Amino acid sequence: MLKKDDEFISLTSQAFNFVKGHKRLFDYLGTAVLGLIVIYMGIYAYISHVNKKGQEAFNKAFYAMNSQTGSDTADTSSANTEKMFNELIEDYGMSKAAKLALPELASAGFEQKKYDEAISLYEEYLDKISNNEPYASLARMALSTCYEQKGEYDRAVTSLEKIIEGPDDYIKEQAMLNLSRVYRLAGKQDKSNETITEFKKKFPKSVYFDIADSFLKS
Questions:
Q1: Quick check: is 198 in a domain?
Q2: Smallest Cα–Cα separation from 10: which of 21, 2, 20, 22?
Q3: Angstrom distance (rounded) from CA 104 to CA 122
Q4: What is the spatial distance between Cα 154 and Cα 145, in angstroms, rounded to a whole number?
Q5: Kind and range of the H or E run holding 190
Q6: Which structural domain, as residue segments, surrounds residue 151?
Q7: 54: burial class by Cβ within 10 Å (0-12, 13-18, 19+)?
Q8: What is the pLDDT of residue 63?
Q9: What is the CATH number of the domain that holds 159?
Q10: Is 141 part of any domain?
Q11: 6-43 per-position pLDDT tens digit
């Protein structure tokens, strides 16, 4: 019987002899593996570069947008900021920051009362993030506000109902309050009251409880 050390030496020797006997095959395999590693490193380096440049472009546009608040040239600055975000999406569309540019552009469109443009951008953003929470719910909240401003209350309701079906209770609270308010705007007082009653049952410790109460009394 071989001892454990002898077994290891025997197996190692067999493996060495096998590799030696099939040297050309292993040369090919080694070259192929090396090639795959080089390709992987190249892709990784490229993606890292795109993400870095995309983040830099996003930061530049974001700071420009914040600095324009209260400016005498707000309209011009807003147009420049939109251009910067659009260039980010065009030049670094594969970067993570490109996704973040979409809701910023949508928000800028909303501020300028370009509601259809804002809706289109929020929907594009939702397609890209694949229901990633809480971002999807926040985007739907913004969508509902856009539809509300257009007077399309049914669509606003649909967006809010999707949030209520989601997992985030804090955002659900706000969605239910907004839903009640949109029902009132649409002249559906009964629906509004039903929503608030359900809200009070579901979130008895909510910080919005008193606000919900006032909805029923008004």
A1: yes
A2: 2
A3: 9
A4: 12
A5: helix 189-202
A6: 131-218
A7: buried
A8: 74
A9: 1.25.40.10
A10: yes
A11: 544 554 555 555 555 655 555 555 555 544 444 445 55
